[in-house]
Amino acid sequence: MLRLEKINKSYRSGTSSLHVLRDVDLEIASGDFVAIMGSSGSGKSTLLNVVGILDRYDSGTYQLDGHLVRDLSDRQAARYRNRFIGFVFQTFNLLPFKSALDNVALPLYYRGVRRRERNARALEYLGRVGLRERAHHLPTELSGGECQRVAVARALITEPKLLLADEPTGALDTQTSYQLMDLLHTLNQEGLTILLVTHEHDIAERAHRTIVLRDGRIMSAEA
């Protein structure tokens, strides 16, 4: 599914440079479920941003589904993301003035799908995450766990090959976190490849293997 070889990434601030990723090698097979752990500043989110083609890397190679990801224009990067990747974030990133249905349907709107079709598909995916009856509620009328499931449905509606989740349980209580992980586990069993960033050991234990980052380097990869 994806392969990173000797990936380096630095950020410049004035005259100084912060080396965030250092010679990162990572291979994730199709259907894998991988958790990334590490302390604050270890490079977890930067690694996820590189994989998600939200950030460019300085050196090394990144292959996604057999395609070399390198020096892409903004339009090319958006096309790759739209074709291969779904995103779930800790803060949900839902539009507060749009219903759950409209939030889930939004990626199809940007693809030019007609309203009737995109709403029908959005309702289908809300059903998959157990929220069909909440389709016309605003995010302010939903619990945190329900908002996160809406975000998962929105990520799935484009039928991505890879789901990237950045601290998806960070704003949820323990029971709701486990319910979300049950959902992700089911999606993984159906063939979805998942890469998840978390600081919670009990959440990481639900993945097939755990990658530990420290100071921008992979320190261990535990099955």
Fold and architecture overview:
This protein is of the alpha/beta class and 223 residues long. It contains seven helices and ten strands. Helices cover 35% and strands 29% of the residues. Helix 6 links the parallel strand 7 (162-166) and strand 8 (193-197). The longest helix has 16 residues, at 174-189. The chain is globular and about 50 Å long.
Topology:
Blueprint: E1 2-13, E2 16-28, E3 33-37, H1 44-51, E4 59-64, E5 67-68, H2 74-84, E6 85-89, H3 100-110, H4 115-128, H5 144-156, E7 162-166, H6 174-189, E8 193-197, H7 201-204, E9 209-214, E10 217-222
Helix pairs in contact: 3-4, 3-5, 4-5, 5-6
In short:
This protein is of the alpha/beta class and 223 residues long. Helices cover 35% and strands 29% of the residues.
Taking all Cα atoms into account, the compactness measure Rg is: 18 Å
One letter per element, helices H and strands E, the order comes to EEEHEEHEHHHEHEHEE
Count of helical stretches: 7
End-to-end Cα distance, whole Å, is 18 Å
